[in-house]
TrEMBL record:
Region annotated Disordered, chain positions: 99-118
Predominant place of localization: membrane
Name listed for the protein in its UniProt record: Membrane-anchored ubiquitin-fold protein
Function description: May serve as docking site to facilitate the association of other proteins to the plasma membrane.
Any one GO CC term of the record: plasma membrane
Membrane association type: Lipid-anchor
Pfam family, one: Rad60-SLD_2
Start and end residues of each UBL3-like ubiquitin domain: 6-116
Location of the protein in the cell: Cell membrane
């Protein structure tokens, strides 16, 4: 029974409805380590797959998970049930390049006030 308490079965749901896992993770596993698992086990044939931890967001029970916290910090009461599997949703947000970050000089939307005072 102690083994069930110290580990959490996690399945990662990707945005194309495919899954990674479920796999058991110890309670001391950080969210950053979970993201590394997602990166290493993501399908390689996808051109927009994650490359770094910063590109991956994990969502569990409606919360975006913080890299520094552990699996134990996000454990729900349901996860203590026998054969329970926690599903974490994976969001991939590729990092913007410097070219994409810089606004265009001729962009009419930049520095334009859209407030209306009545």
């Amino acid at each position: 029974m102690a083994e069930v308490d110290d580990q959490l079965e996690i399945k990662f749901r990707l945005n194309d409805d495919s899954d990674i896992g479920p796999k058991p993770f110890p309670d001391a596993t950080t969210v950053a380590a979970l993201k590394e698992t997602v990166i290493s086990q993501s399908p390689r044939e996808k051109e927009n797959g994650p490359r770094t931890v910063k590109e991956v967001k994990l969502i569990s029970a409606g919360k975006v998970l913080d890299n520094n916290k552990t699996v134990k910090d996000y454990r729900s009461p349901v996860s203590t049930l026998v054969d329970a599997v926690t599903t974490m949703h994976v969001i991939i947000q590729p990092l913007l390049t410097e070219k994409e970050k810089k606004p265009k000089d001729g962009d009419p939307k930049m520095n334009k006030c859209v407030c209306s005072i009545m």
